[in-house]
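TL;DR need structure tokens for one chain.
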Amino acid sequence: MPAETKACRICREMMAADAKRCPRCQAWQSSWATFWFGGNTYSFAQQIVWIVVMLVVMWASFRLFLFPSGKDFQQHRNDLAFASQSMTFKQEKDREFFAVVGTIRNASDTMWRDLSVEARFYNSKGELIDTYSTELRDVIVLPRTDAAFRLTGYTARPGSEYSKVTLTITSAKEKSRRDW
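>> reply
TL;DR here they are.
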């Protein structure tokens, strides 16, 4: 009675049906082993698994080690305040726009960046007539110093109706020394 044989998954050499590895090319013969080892070289599936693992590790490294979340702004809200501000208006073609210029004072030992600012505009009666929110991405407020800022935008009403502006910092991020 002839011995049962099968062909190798990689090199097609005939071998015993119960062999785990090919005697010629040393490739594993089970489907799971072929998935992982794929013969003498890495299989396509193994390469995909390694690429996914490396991408996850790289993402975790960048997120957790290079870009830490930093301090909570809510605990330092009173440390950032507007030291001075002035409001001007100008007509540009068919629209009027405003500019609010001033300084932000940082009383903390933390460096802040990406400040979100809300501007509330009031008329002479003290009624709220317009609002404007923006993020000051180009302003970095160093510890225990003042930083200049400028807000500009189009008005919703004629500039003559605006008499007062109040500014509020709604959020900020800690500037890490590792930020690029």
